[in-house]
Amino acid sequence: MDKKTTVETVPATENTGKDILLTDRRDTIIRQHVYASAGVGLIPIPFVDVLGSAGVQLNMMKKLSEFYKVDFNEKLAKKIIIALCGGIIPAILTPGIKGIVKCIPIVGLPLVAATVPLLEATSTYGMARVLCSHFEKGGNFVNFNVNIAKDEFAAIISDEELKAKLLNVISLKKKTDEEAEPALA
What we know:
Shape: globular
Number of domains: 1
């Protein structure tokens, strides 16, 4: 066996320094957009928070497609956002519900202020994980199967442990020296 054959048979699960750097870069893209999406969720104007979050997700999809060297297709990316996030958008979009919840004494406004950014951050994170998984399998925007992705997306955004981590990350709570920031990816 020559050296070239030996090198090619190294298991893909072994991490090299280059793999770690690439993963860190991908995770940084995701993290920045999750934070931005949560921040946009704080905008108190109906529909602006949802449209802003969709814009953040579209930008994230573009950055991830560049990272994975996949041709970006804005039209298909928008359709993916609508198809995957369509299930949670009604909960975010309904200004009547937000208005009613805000009226609950003492807890109403903080509940809305925590819930909407959490929903936005969770959907952005779920979108990122689904898209990364698809790209890592050699996929692109043209062959993205929304029906298959919906199940994976639903599983990600319904994960209570993830929501707890995201809520901790996006909260304004001051961390002590002993507390580490939870990993998102």
